[in-house]
Amino acid sequence: MNTAARARPARLIALYAVAGVGLAVWAFPVVWGLLTSFKTERDVLASPPVWLFTPTLANYREVIFGASSIVPNLASSLIVATLATALTLVFAIPAAYAMARLRFPAKRGTGFYVLATQMLPPVGLIIPYYLVLQKIGGLDTYAGLVVIYLTFSLPFAIWLLVSYFEDVPMEMEEAALLDRAGRVRALWHVILPQVKGGIAVTTIFVFLNAWNEFMFAVVLGGNRVRPVTVAMFNFISVEQTQWARLAAGAMLAMAPVILLGMFAQRHIVKGLTVGAVKGGGRRA
Amino acid sequence: MTSGADAGGSASVRIEGVVKQHGTTTVLHGVDLAIAPGEFFVLLGPSGSGKTTTLRILAGLESVSAGRVWMDGADVTTKEPGARDVAMVFQSYALYPHMTVAQNIGFPLKMVGTSRDETARAVEGAAQKVGIGHLLQRTPGQLSGGQQQRVALARAIVRQPRLFLLDEPLSNLDAKLRLETRLELRRLQRSLGVTTVYVTHDQEEAMTLADRMAVFMDGRIVQVGTPREIFTRPLSLDVASFIGTPPMNLLAGEWDGHAVSIGGSTVAIGAETKSARDVVVGIRPHALRLAEGGLRARVEGVEDLGDSAIVDLVVDERLVKLKTERAPLLREGEPVFVAFAPEDAHLFDSATGARID
C-alpha cells in the first residue's frame, strides 16, 4: 500500500515526461511555423534563430489580399475535398452496407481486392492517370481530380465502413423490416444512425487525404484547378524561398483541418476503438 | 380458439409442406401446421430443431425452399415481412439504441404515416399495458433487461398486428422475472386476443403458456396437441423424454402381450397386443412410488427440494428418478422396490420409438 502510494506520483511524472517529449517533438514544427508566419523575412533567416521579435501581419495580408493570395486556392481545395468526400460517402455507404450484409460469391476476394488497391504506390499511377485524363479531356478539371481521388478514397472508405455495418445486429434490421420500414427506410432510420461514428471517421479521413494531397494535384491539376498545397509550392522558387509567406499560407491551410479535427474528435476516438471488441456493448 | 369474439382482427395461419434448405443441409423437412385465430401456439423443441426457422418463415424473414404459407386463407409465401401485418419480439429484443423508448414503440406507426397525436396516444396505451409508462423518455441503454423486454413487447402490440411472433422472449431474463413475465404475457395475449406463435426450448414455458403446441425434432414436427395431451400421451420416445422435469424414466423391457419384464421383474400392463416384442417402458417420476414389491432398485441419493424430493435410483443398471412429496429416509446403496400403476406406463416400440397403445 505504502509502496504503491509512493510509486504513483513517480509513475505519473514519468508518464507526463514521456507525453511531454512526444508533444514537443510533434508540436515543434507547428509552433515554429506559427512563429515564422509572424516574422519578417529578415527575422526568419536570422542566425541564430530569434525567439523574440516584433510580430507582423504583413505575411497574412500578402497571402490573403496580396498578389500571391491563396484564397482562391483554398476555395479550390475546398471544392475538391468536399466533392471527393461527398461522392465517396454516396458510393461507399451502400457498398459497405451490401458487403456487410449480403452473401455473394467471392466476397472475401472482393475485400482483399479493395485493400490491394491501397497497396499500390500512388506515384506509379500518375503517368497512366495523366494519359487517361488527357485522352478524355479531364486534365486540370475538378471532375478529373475528384475522380482520381475517388479511386483511392473509395476502397479505403468501403473497407473502413464495412466493419461498422457488421457491428449492427442483423436482428435490428429485421425488426425494422417487420415494422414496415422497407429496405431503404430501415437503412436510413435504423442502421445509419448506428454507424454515425464510422461515417464521421470516414468523412474526416477522406477529406484530410484530399485536402492534403499534393502530388496528383500538381501533376493532374495546374492552372484552373490549383489546390492550396500546389499554390504554396509557388513560394519556393529557384531564386528564393519566401519562408514567412509560406508559413502564413501553411497556417491558413491547416486551419480548416484542425477545426474539423476538433469538431470530430469525439467520433474519431470512439470510432477507432469500435472494431476492437467485435459487437461489444452494441447489442442492447 | 378461446376468445372468439376478440379474435376478429387476428389471423389464422396454415403452413403446408414447408421445406427449408441452407446449401446442402435441410433445416426443415416438410412442416405442416394449422393455427386457429386467437390461439396461443408454442413451437417447442431443442436448439437446432427448426422451430426458430419456422417462426422466421412465418415472419417472412426467411424464404422457403418448398411449400406454402397461408394467412387467413391468403397465400403469403413470397410476401415481404412488412406486408404481412405481423409483429415480432426477438430474443435479443432488437431495440433501436439511438431512439427513446417512445420512439421505439412508435416506430411501426411512424413507418405507415400515422399522425403524431394518434401515435403518441397509441404509444402511451401500449406502454401502459406492459407497465413501462414512466420510462418513455429513456433510451434502451438506460433500461434493465426486463424493461427492455417490455419495450420490445410494447413495440409489437402498438400496431395491433394480426399475428404476434415471439422468439424465446424470456430467455434473457433471470428466473424470477421469467416466471412473472410469463404470467403477464399470457394475460396480455388473452386480453388482446391476437394469434400468437411463441418459440421456446423450455418445456415448462410451453406447458404453461400454450393453448396448443408443436414439438419439433430434427427439422420435423413430431407431435401437435394441447400441453396436457402431449404430456399424458407422448407419441414417441423423443417427445416423452423431452417433456417433463425431471424427464420421463425410460427402461428397456420385453412385452409378452400382458406384462412387461424389466431386468428380471415382471409388471402387469393394461394394454394388449398380438405379438411379443422389445419395448421401452416410460414412467413419469411422479408416477413411481416406493413399494413392498415390484422392480428391484438401489438408492443412489435423495435430492430434497423442500416441498418435494427426487430419489435417484438405479433400476436394471439405469438411472431412474422418483418424485415424492416428502424426502424418504434412505441411505445410499440401500436396496428398495419401486412400483407404478399399469395405466401410468407408456409403451414405446424400441425399434421405431413409436407409441404402442
Short structural description:
Chain A has helices at 2-37, 41-45, 58-65, 71-101, 107-119, 126-135, 142-166, 170-178, 182-191, 196-212, 215-220, 228-233, 243-274. With 284 residues, chain A is an all-alpha fold. In chain A, α4 crosses α10.
Q: Strand pairing plus helix content of chain B: what structural class?
A: alpha+beta
Q: Which class best fits the helix and strand makeup of chain A?
A: mainly alpha
The CA-CA distance between the termini of chain A, in Å, is 39 Å
- The number of domains of chain A is 2
The helix-strand sequence of chain A is: HHHHHHHHHHHHH
Q: Helix fraction of chain A?
A: over 70%
Question: How does this model look, in words?
Answer:
The complex is a heterodimer of chains A (284) and B (357). By secondary structure, chain A is mainly α. Chain A folds into two domains: 58 residues, no CATH class; 206 residues, MetI-like (MetI-like fold, Orthogonal Bundle), CATH 1.10.3720.10. Chain A is built from 13 helices and no strands. In chain A, helix 4 packs parallel to helix 7, helix 4 packs across helix 10 and helix 5 crosses helix 7. Chain A is globular. Chain A starts with a helix and ends in a 10-residue tail after the last helix. The C terminus of chain A is likely disordered. Chain B is of the alpha+beta class and 357 residues long. Chain B has two domains: 231 residues, P-loop containing nucleotide triphosphate hydrolases (Rossmann fold, 3-Layer(aba) Sandwich), CATH 3.40.50; 111 residues, Beta Barrel (OB fold (Dihydrolipoamide Acetyltransferase, E2P)), CATH 2.40.50.140. Chain B has eight helices and 21 strands. In chain B, the strands form four sheets. Chain B has a six-stranded mixed β-sheet with strand order 6-7-8-3-9-10, with helices on both faces. In chain B, strands 13-12-11-14-20-21 form a six-stranded antiparallel β-sheet. A five-stranded antiparallel β-sheet of chain B has the order 15-19-16-17-18, with no helix packed on it. Chain B is elongated, with a radius of gyration of 24 Å. Chain B starts with 12 loop residues before the first strand and ends with a strand. The N terminus of chain B is likely disordered. The interface between A and B is medium-sized, with 20 and 27 residues.
